[in-house]
Q: What sequence folds into this?
């Protein structure tokens, strides 16, 4: 048992929409604590298996422990789903009956201050999903030029991007910004909340995480690399948690359907029910889109 928990979002909907072949091999490209993998395995017969991938070695270890009861029906690989083709081949798998991407980070990441993801807990400006990566939020905040910081937070929807980027540069001239609490305090001072539903630092924190982990690039590469691996009839399901990510999925799926050989299973994204949102706040912005290979 771990001290952290993560409630899988849109679990029943994902299982219902993803499974088309009962005895197949599936990939959970964002294993996390293994919640969706467990749901898939519970819904499938013993012949079916899941390869779970996570970029974070700590998370892969947590999932390995949680999924022990499934024995050899589950394999776990640590790696970036942007290289899903190499990972699947290395595991000796030739074709897939389905793949799931449940994007972003897990509750464990948010809840563990040392990972530096949360604006609620003080920690180092880190935000790396894989701690072996060279780029950290500290580097961006303390070394990137004004234009790059301003652009990054603007494209992630921050209205006060210029004011914030200027304040970051002024502050770091005196002393580097070291912690999430220092950055949060700076944002609260420079662009205080004015009745918005979200904390004033939310968009800057999201922007930093996305940049530190090349999240948009990984997503595009992951989709492209997995396409040839799926069997005819197999489905790809993607759960997103913010509009920038959802736009990438929506446009890529539309392009695939127009190109031929693919059919949208969900014309509109599947969203969580009121009950799910009431019991899991993290689910409120989730959207599931599914496409099938013809
Ligand atoms: C939202 S959580 C998944 C939760 C999981 N579905 C569950 O039910 O427990 C997303 C997971 O994807 C992992 N991740 C993020 N980007 C990744 C990438 N490029 N390659 C592989 N794993 C990634 C994160 O480390 C995190 O554990």
A:
């Amino acid at each position: 048992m771990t001290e952290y928990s993560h409630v899988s979002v849109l679990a029943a909907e994902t299982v219902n929409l993803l499974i088309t072949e009962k005895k197949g091999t599936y990939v959970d490209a964002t294993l996390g604590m293994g919640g969706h993998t467990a749901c898939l395995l519970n819904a499938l017969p013993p012949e079916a298996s899941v390869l779970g991938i996570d970029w974070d070695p700590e998370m892969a270890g947590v999932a390995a422990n949680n999924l022990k009861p499934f024995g050899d029906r589950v394999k776990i690989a640590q790696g970036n789903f942007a290289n899903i083709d190499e990972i699947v081949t290395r595991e000796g798998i030739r074709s897939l009956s389905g793949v799931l991407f449940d994007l972003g980070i897990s509750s464990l990441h948010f809840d563990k201050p040392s990972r530096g993801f949360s604006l609620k807990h003080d920690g180092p400006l880190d935000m790396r999903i894989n701690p072996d990566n060279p780029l950290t939020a500290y580097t961006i905040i303390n070394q990137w030029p004004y234009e790059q910081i301003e652009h990054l937070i603007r494209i992630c929807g921050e209205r006060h991007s210029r004011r914030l980027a200027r304040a970051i540069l002024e502050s770091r001239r005196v002393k580097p910004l070291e912690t999430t609490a220092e950055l949060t305090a700076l944002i609260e001072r420079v662009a205080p909340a004015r009745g918005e539903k979200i904390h004033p630092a939310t968009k800057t924190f999201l922007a930093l995480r996305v940049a530190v982990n090349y999240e948009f690039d990984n997503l595009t590469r992951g989709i492209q690399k997995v396409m040839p691996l799926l069997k005819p009839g197999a489905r790809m399901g993607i759960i997103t948690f913010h509009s920038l990510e959802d736009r990438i999925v929506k446009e890529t799926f539309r392009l695939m359907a127009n190109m031929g050989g693919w059919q949208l299973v969900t014309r509109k994204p599947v969203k969580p029910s009121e009950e799910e949102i009431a019991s899991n706040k993290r689910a409120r912005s989730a959207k599931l889109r599914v496409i099938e290979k013809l």
User: Anything to note?
Assistant: The mean pLDDT is 96. The longest helix spans residues 243-259. The chain has 13 helices and seven strands. Residues 6, 8, 30, 32-36, 53-56, 59, 80-82, 102, 104-106, 129, 218 surround S-adenosylmethionine (CB under 6 Å).
